[in-house]
Design brief:
The complex is a heterodimer of chains A (88) and B (402).
Chain A (H helix, E strand, L loop, with lengths): L2 H15 L12 H4 L3 H15 L5 H4 L5 H20 L3
Chain B lengths: L3 E10 L5 H10 L5 E2 L12 E2 L13 H4 L4 H17 L5 H6 L1 E5 L5 H13 L9 H5 L3 H10 L5 E4 L5 H15 L5 E7 L4 H10 L22 E9 H6 L6 E10 L9 H14 L7 E5 L8 H13 L7 E3 L2 H4 L6 H15 L1 E2 L22 E2 L4 E7 L4 E9 L1
Parallel strand pairs in B: 4-5, 4-6, 9-10, 9-13
Antiparallel strand pairs in B: 1-7, 1-8, 2-3, 6-7, 8-14, 11-12, 13-14
Classes of the chains: A mainly alpha (88), B alpha/beta (402).
């Protein structure tokens, strides 16, 4: 995972939750950060906008922490760029 | 205080265009859920809804009248016509002046607003249709019912998201019980299938990709629905005196606020509303034989509601029958509680309990008798109808067999 991607994910979380970005680390989990289900839905919305991706519901059900979230975003960003490169 | 009878019932929703069709679908455990047809869902993650299939205003309203009514207000009037005809009301000038109308709606005519805003925001037009405001207002249902029947008594609309119609029926019940009105027309209507509203629901991530499976372990959320249901409420003695058919009685109403989270439900708040309804009805928990659950089929609601029922009913929770008819008529938001109160009244009247459809797998967190998939013959004397809204505003109605 690139540092840049991690930083962008953490910034989206911090901005949405209105907490200092320093309080979010790659090893934080949602519980520690006080992120509830509605916060999570808002964060997904922010990430979809930030990375121009669609995050399907089934991708997010088991996500409990920032690392998992970054991995998921990376996978979707990669899938998008791969799809863009392959001519139809 | 007076006892309050339900003497008229009307409904239009995914299960049918009148009460008889609605009752038949519930008894057969047949969901009205399918691919959404009244809005373009090609850019939406979910595809299914509980719509009034093939609905057009033509059988109900002439074109000019229909121009003035958003679909949600049409549903309110259609259900009111059936309920009033069913009750056999003979209108007198005195009755017109004293009768009350209380309706519930969550989003009102937002599909009309959606069209108007599309005109200015997207198409860059410089004007919006002049009927946008009167079609959008959430009280349009109540207003059009009053105009249709010439009812000039106290009339108003409540908007408490998914509890709207329960709050409406509850207020009407109290008005009739206290003697402040001799007749009330109460219920709710909703028509939320427009692109903008569906997009907003999509963003909430609470809508199921396939169907609504309340209390089932593999549930994946709610299914949006539409429709209207209206009840006619009268003092029991007066109804008997005029020889009206008593479908059921409303005997209690309870409300509470979670004061917790804007969307996460609270078992404590739900339990307090059920206790308040029992208290209002002077009933012991053991008297209740059936609960029409809020039962949205979301991961959060169903275990919370189960915990609330266990907290209120203790050991009796294991002997109660519970079902969510949202598995069939969908979650019609501000109309839901009216459809569910109607389903509860039918269950008490006809001696069968509607099932929880689409049920596949027991969930240890929802370990109540949820009447899976098949309606059950049972004579029940008292029942509750639960509504727990987003925003934490809860409303519970208590009914008695007539």
């Amino acid at each position: 995972m690139s540092d840049e991607l991690i930083q962008r994910v953490m910034k989206a979380i911090a901005t949405t939750k209105r907490i200092p970005v320093e309080s979010v680390t790659i090893d934080s989990n949602f519980l520690e950060l006080g992120i509830d289900s509605m916060d999570a839905v808002e964060i997904l919305f922010a990430l979809e906008n930030e990375f121009d991706i669609n995050i399907p519901d089934e991708e997010v059900r088991s996500v409990r922490g920032i690392r998992q979230m970054c991995e998921g975003v990376e996978r979707l960003v990669l899938a998008k760029s791969t799809a863009a490169k392959v001519p139809e | 205080m007076r006892r309050v009878a339900i003497t008229g019932m009307g409904a239009i929703c995914a299960l049918g265009k009148n009460v008889a069709e609605f009752a038949r679908a519930l008894a057969e455990g047949r969901p009205g859920i399918g691919p959404i047809e009244s809005a373009d869902v090609s850019q939406i993650r979910f595809q299914n809804g509980a719509e009034v299939r093939g609905y057009t205003h033509a059988p109900y309203f002439d074109d000019r009248r229909a121009d003035f009514l958003d679909r949600f207000a049409q549903f309110a009037v259609i259900a009111a016509r059936e309920a009033i005809a069913d009750a056999g009301i003979q209108w007198t000038p005195e009755l017109c002046e004293s009768a009350a109308i209380v309706t519930g709606s969550c989003v009102g005519g937002q599909s009309t607003e959606d069209i108007g805003f599309h005109e200015v925001y997207k198409l860059g037009h410089n004007r919006v249709h002049p009927l946008t405001i009167p079609k959008t207002m959430a009280n349009a249902g109540a207003s059009h019912i009053s105009m249709e029947f010439g009812i000039t008594g106290p009339s108003f609309t409540l908007s408490t998201a998914c509890s709207s119609a329960a709050h409406a029926i509850g207020q009407a019940f109290w008005m009739v019980r206290s003697g402040s009105t001799g007749l009330a027309i109460a219920g709710g209507s909703e028509a939320p299938f427009s692109f903008g509203i569906l997009k907003a629901w999509e963003a909430m991530r609470v809508v199921s990709p396939d169907t609504c499976r309340p209390f089932s372990k593999d549930r994946h959320g709610m299914i949006l629905g539409e429709g209207g249901a209206i009840l006619v409420l009268e003092p029991l003695e007066a109804a008997r005196a005029r020889g009206a058919r008593i479908h059921a009685e409303i005997v209690g109403f309870g409300m509470s606020a979670d004061a917790g989270h804007i969307t996460q439900p609270s078992a404590e708040g739900a339990a307090r509303a059920m206790r308040a309804a029992l208290r209002d009805a002077h009933l012991a928990p053991e008297a209740i034989g059936y609960i029409n659950a809020h039962g949205t089929g979301t991961p959060a609601n169903d275990p919370t509601e189960t915990a609330a029922i266990r907290a209120v009913f203790g050991a009796h929770a294991g002997r109660l029958a519970i079902s969510s008819t949202k598995s069939m008529h969908g979650h019609a938001l501000g109309a839901s509680a009216a459809l569910e109160c109607l389903a509860t009244a039918l269950a008490l009247r006809d001696g069968w309990l509607p099932p929880t459809a689409n049920y596949r797998e027991p969930d240890p967190q929802c370990d109540l008798d949820v009447i899976p998939n098949v309606a059950r013959a049972a004579r029940v004397e008292y029942a509750l109808s639960n509504s727990f809204a987003f925003g934490g505003l809860n409303a519970v109605l208590a009914l008695r067999a007539g």
